[in-house]
Write a structure and sequence with these properties.
Radius of gyration: 34 Å
Largest sheet: 2 strands, antiparallel
Number of helices: 51
Strand content: under 5%
Structural class: mainly alpha
Mean pLDDT: 89
Number of strands: 4
């Protein structure tokens, strides 16, 4: 029985997820009838599963934990995708699936005839999945997945009519404002982990009493920030009224019945922590009381039927927060449930009115609808009576219990605020009813002729909701002692409930609440039931009050002036500094270079060329003797090419498999003999050398090919073979090991200690696969987009792949440096020759100058490492007294003072390449001016930050963890996060926006690296891989946009999604990954980085988490202006959506994004062994032997 219940639990979110996949992928191939059946049928199946689980919970009374799979792990952190089923979960599941099913059925009628019918139901089902994960998760991170998931769905559904500017703006506003709350929630999660070393609810609540009052207050207030954002409380409520731009069923499902109650659920779930902090409890109560009253006052004068209900929702959520703050958790959940019934009823009834009036929402243009839509009138009236708190309907019992709890526990001011709010609620709801259904008709003639009652598919769900609004309060009767309270007692017991309220006092409070509601009804009846102009006269006598309320206290305008506009101004200032001051300095150097080059040109022309002419004449005589080989026969040329490749490959093999004492086989055996070395690769050929030199050999072959189609096909074939070899390395790589694998070693310059030493471990192996993967995609992208000097372009691209592979596979520092420098050559020419910008020559020069400057520092640092080794080797009488080999250098102690000097030299080399702020200014120019293929490789390959992991940290552990070093680097990294994000916010060029976004992301990576703990290093390494899919993917998207509009400027777009929906969808998915949406790869890495930073010092994490907010702001604001809204006149109607090659690129990236986001286990296992070894070395803060530092013993 237990196993079957566990299976049923897993099926609850799985059914709507299957509907998302089926309708999302194939919905365009079948009818709307089949699509909606999949949609509501999946929710119905989930509801039936919930009933089974609820029945089992009633029978046993025990909580149940169900683990789906191990999700994120490493070090002291383990997070499972797991579910907790207890009475609180059951109530939430019943509300979500029950009310959600009714809204889905209602939507079939309401959305009938919409062009995006199937898309709407995909979004609705995805919302159900997210909301179910939110309430079912057994830990904070699973809750956060659902938490952000419902935020995404809210964005999609609010912006459903994406060609409307108001809808697009409302969707962006909702997501960004929620992100502010989410940042606070993340801080709470980090505080919980730091204090409990776990994120599972059960363990946290069992040990909550160990928290100090100060820590409990900090955690509770951070949780409250998240709840305030999601549940639209002061001061983060402003998104909810604007969210009414979505279809009415969206308002019912998301902004009344489920999503906005998530904050209440989260507080109740964590009540053990809140109970430890009187400060937090008081704050919750006052926020709730103030919001209930504040929103009610705004609702008094609103004229849009849905906006009245929106402010009503904000106000009612305030009552729930008030209940939580008073310790009446069960009462808060009770009101949550009853509110879901009557508010869903009211929203859907309002939708019925709008449906009857052909879309009209202004109540000033309604009236006298009672006789025309009688079913809707009756059902709306039931909802109004319920929300007004008139007995015996559901709203009376739940709201009265919260108010009564405030009075009984002597919170008289809060009780007074709640009472006034209840009076205003009754007034504005009956005002709405009278203006909509009674009085004289104010409909225009055309609308009046077409008023009609809604079909039964819409009325049926309303009848069920009306029934629940009538009887849904009885499970909570008698107040504080009903069945509902007993059921939730174990998880949401009311603080102080042992003191029973006297019956007389209880009856008095109930009577008072009833009188308050009736007085509100009476006043509304006086003002609005007849032709009286009293309401207009009152507004005329108090124009200031009326205008203030009508304009919602001008809060939106205040926020714009205090926060939004100053942030934009800062962004513009920073952008000006980058373009004017920094670029001015570089251009001065450029002018100096031009002057010196003129002198060099004269010398070259008059001195060097004279000698070359002599040599040229001799070469001409020699060439005449070679012409006889040019027979013109293609098969002879092909034979020569094959023979050349054969000789080249076997020369490599000869070097690699040399039988002498320094050959690979001997070297490998000597290492395997050590007890901790694990060499698992047994194919028997030098695969890393093949990975490095195959593209270079391919570039040589391309030089001999004239036909352009054959050239492209050959290039693709070479890169696919390279990808296959890289995949072979990944498959044969031994996970959970720190061993250097696939090692190759040969002497290169033995007198100087320079060797040809290749190997990969958990730090580098994923970069090998990423390099091959991205190169294939770049070749596919370049197929039609590169039209000049095609052969040279692909040769340069393959040369770039060779040098990049060499960087990631090299273990010898000089070999690494050679590849590091050689990479400049193809990079320079790719930017200069195939860039699309007018400043591409300057951008290429700037890139080379910056990188060369950093390389000078790095080379000095490498030399100092060798000198230190030499001194140590001489002292210990070793045979070889020079070495640049990483594994040998690790065994040599370095004094701290020298470590710090070498650290800063190496830091400069890697920081310029990364780039780390403030050495970043070459990157925007290179990415904007260069071709998309080069931008993808530059943005996707984080070579500089890789250098920290590969060499700096293991070789210089004491310097790396020095407090002064860490503080300086952390300040730079945090500045990069904020600087990059703020400047990105004001960019009008998409590629430049992505460049500064990349700088911000690099800031996150560096923060994680210099947290110097397992989660920070693990998150940074994973994020470096992730950016190869998300940031590189966004540059591909920028290329797709540019090829259609010949520009990446914002002015060239506007409403583009209408013309290219597939491109817009992929752009949104990859963009969401870039800003760290849970379920995508970006979240896993970003979460680990922030957690690691918080563990290092809390303020590192607190500052870094603000980047989460800015990231959402700059991407979604650009997406709103470029993709959403009406179609711009600059966009041709003939522009087509993605073609097959572009779909291949976008789909490949999307698969990787979702794979790492949903199941990162294979990637984490590859890196965890090496990360742990590096952490151990840093923790020891002293030099150990190679085996104990680099390798983890076999288990």
């Amino acid at each position: 029985m237990s196993d079957s219940i566990d299976l049923i639990v897993k099926l609850i979110p799985l059914f709507p997820l299957m509907a998302v996949i089926v309708n999302g992928l194939f919905g365009h191939r079948y009818s709307h009838d089949l699509a909606h059946r999949f949609a509501w049928g999946s929710v119905l199946m989930s509801f039936l599963c919930v009933l089974a689980v609820f029945t089992e919970t009633l029978r046993t009374g025990a909580a149940r934990e169900v683990v789906a799979y191990k999700w994120i792990f490493g070090g002291d952190l383990t997070i499972n995708l797991a579910y907790l089923i207890d009475p609180l979960t059951c109530i939430m599941l019943l509300v979500i699936t029950g009310v959600g099913f009714l809204i889905h059925v209602y939507s079939v009628g309401y959305m009938h005839g919409e062009s995006g019918f199937t898309r709407f139901f995909v979004y609705m089902n995805l919302f159900m999945v997210s909301m179910l994960l939110l309430v079912m998760g057994n830990n904070y991170v699973v809750l956060f997945i659902g938490w952000e998931g419902v935020g995404l769905c809210s964005y999609l559904l609010i912006g459903y009519y994406y060609d409307k500017v108001s809808a697009a703006k409302a969707a962006t506003k909702a997501f960004v404002v929620n992100r502010i709350g989410d940042a606070g929630f993340l801080l709470a999660i980090f505080l919980v982990f730091v204090n409990f070393r776990t994120l599972d609810y059960t363990q946290v609540m069992q040990n909550a009493a160990q928290l100090s009052p100060e820590m409990a207050t900090a955690i509770a207030l951070c949780l409250l920030i998240g709840a305030v954002g999601k549940s639209a409380q002061l001061p983060l409520y402003t998104w909810l009224p604007d969210a009414m731009e979505g279809p009415t069923p969206v308002s019912a499902l998301i902004h009344a019945a489920t999503m906005v109650t998530a904050g209440v659920y989260m507080i109740v779930r964590n009540h053990a922590i809140f109970d430890l902090s009187p400060t937090a409890m008081t704050t919750v109560a006052w926020i709730g009381g103030l919001t209930a009253l504040f929103a009610a006052t705004i609702g008094l004068v609103q004229t849009d039927i849905k906006r009245v209900l929106a402010y009503s929702t904000v106000s009612q959520l305030g009552y729930m927060f008030l209940g939580c703050g008073l310790g009446a958790y069960t009462a808060a959940v009770f009101h949550l449930m009853t509110h879901a019934f009557f508010k869903a009823l009211l929203f859907l009834s309002a939708g019925s009115v709008i449906h009857a009036l052909s879309g009209e929402q202004d109540i000033r243009k309604m009236g006298a609808l009672k006789s025309k839509i009688p079913w809707t009138h009756t059902l709306f009236l039931i909802g109004t009576i319920a929300i007004a708190g008139i007995p015996p309907l559901a709203g009376f019992w739940s709201k009265d219990e919260i108010m009564g709890h405030a009075f009984v526990h002597h919170h008289y001011v809060l009780y007074g605020m709640a009472a006034v709010g209840a009076f205003l609620t009754s007034f504005y709801m009956f005002r709405l009813t009278y203006l909509t259904f009674y009085g004289t008709s104010r409909l225009d003639h055309h609308t009046a002729e077409h008023v009609h009652e809604s079909p039964m598919v819409m009325i049926g769900p309303l009848v069920v909701l009306a029934t629940l609004s009538v009887i849904g309060g009885f499970p909570g009767v008698p107040p504080e002692n009903g069945w509902f309270h007993h059921f939730l007692h174990s998880v949401a017991g009311v603080a102080g409930e042992e003191h029973a309220t006297a019956p007389a006092l209880m009856l008095g409070l109930m009577g008072t609440a009833t009188v308050i509601a009736l007085l509100g009804w009476g006043l509304a009846h006086y003002f609005y039931s007849g032709p009286s102009s009293a309401a207009d006269a009152l507004a005329a006598r108090m124009p200031g009050v009326y205008t203030t309320l009508l304009n919602k206290y001008f809060v939106d305008e205040l926020y714009d002036r205090l926060f939004v506009e100053p942030t934009k101004q800062i962004g513009r200032l920073c952008d000006w500094f980058d373009r004017t001051i920094i670029d001015g300095l570089v251009r001065s150097i450029d002018r100096g270079t031009d002057a010196s080059s003129a002198a060099i040109t004269w010398t070259e022309k008059h001195v060097v060329y004279a000698g070359l002419n002599i040599i040229g004449y001799a070469n001409h005589r020699l060439a005449r003797s070679w012409r006889r080989l040019q027979t013109g026969m293609v098969h002879q040329y092909a034979a020569i090419i094959v023979a050349g490749l054969f000789i080249l490959v076997h020369l490599i093999l000869l070097i690699w498999t040399g039988s002498g004492p320094n050959g690979y086989v001997s070297r490998c055996r000597s290492r395997i003999s050590g007890p901790t070395m694990r060499e698992e690769f047994s194919i028997g050929f030098p695969i890393l050398s093949y990975l490095i030199f195959l593209p270079l050999a391919g570039a040589a072959v391309l030089w001999l090919i004239e036909d352009e189609d054959l050239l492209k096909t050959t290039t693709l074939g070479i890169t696919l073979v390279e990808l296959a070899l890289a995949c072979l390395v990944l498959v044969r790589f031994v996970p959970d090991s720190a061993a250097m694998q696939f090692a190759e070693h040969a002497r290169w310059m033995p007198a100087l200690g320079i060797g040809y030493h290749l190997a990969v471990d958990g730090i580098s192996v994923l970069f090998v696969g990423l390099t091959a993967f991205l190169t294939v995609l770049v070749v596919i992208y370049s197929w039609d987009t590169v039209r000049n000097q095609v052969r040279l372009y692909f040769m340069a691209l393959l040369a770039l792949e060779t040098t990049t592979m060499g960087i990631f596979a090299s273990i010898d520092l000089i070999l690494f440096f050679v590849f590091w420098e050689l990479m400049l050559i193809p990079s320079y020419f790719l930017i200069k020759l195939w860039g699309g910008g007018a400043e591409r020559h300057y951008a290429a020069l700037k890139y080379v100058l910056y990188t060369l400057l950093g390389s000078v520092f790095m080379l000095v640092g490498i030399a100092l490492l060798d000198i230190n080794y030499h001194q140590w080797a001489v002292t210990h009488h070793l045979d070889h007294v020079y070495s640049f080999d990483l594994l040998e250098l690790l065994s040599v102690p370095i004094p701290l003072s020298q470590q710090i000097l070498i650290f800063w030299l190496m830091f400069m080399g890697f920081a310029f390449k990364a780039p780390v702020f403030p050495f970043h200014t070459w990157l925007p120019d290179a990415l904007v001016e260069g071709p998309i293929g080069m931008a993808v490789m530059l943005a996707g390959m984080k070579l500089g930050t890789y250098g920290f992991l590969r060499f700096t940290f293991p070789l210089l552990p004491d310097a790396s963890k020095s407090e002064g070093v860490v503080s300086i680097v952390m300040v730079l990294a945090l500045a990069a996060i904020l600087y990059g994000a703020v400047v990105a916010l004001v960019q009008s060029d998409f590629k430049r926006l992505l460049a500064f976004s990349s700088i911000s992301h690099l800031g996150f990576v560096v923060v994680g690296l210099f947290a110097l703990n397992f989660q920070g290093l693990q998150g940074s390494l994973l994020t470096m891989i992730n950016l190869g899919f998300s940031t590189a993917g966004l540059f591909f998207m920028a290329g797709f946009l540019s090829t259609r509009q010949q520009s990446s400027q914002l002015s060239s777009f506007g409403g583009f999604a209408k013309q290219v929906p597939l491109l817009a969808s992929f752009l949104l998915l990859i963009g969401m990954a870039s800003i760290g949406l849970p379920g995508t790869n970006g979240f896993v890495g970003e979460f680990l980085i922030l957690l690691g930073a918080f563990k290092a010092k809390w303020w590192y994490g607190a500052v870094a988490v603000t980047g989460v907010i800015f990231g959402a702001a700059y991407f979604l604001w650009y997406y709103e202006r470029a993709m959403l809204g009406p179609l711009s006149k600059n966009i041709s109607a003939t522009i087509k959506d993605l073609h097959m090659r572009e779909i291949t690129i976008a789909l490949s990236l999307s698969v990787m994004i979702l794979w790492i986001g949903l199941y990162p286990s294979p990637f984490l296992r590859m890196m965890n062994g090496s990360i742990q070894a590096l952490v151990d070395r840093l923790d020891r803060a002293k030099v150990a032997s190679v085996d104990t530092v680099i390798h983890v013993p076999a288990k």
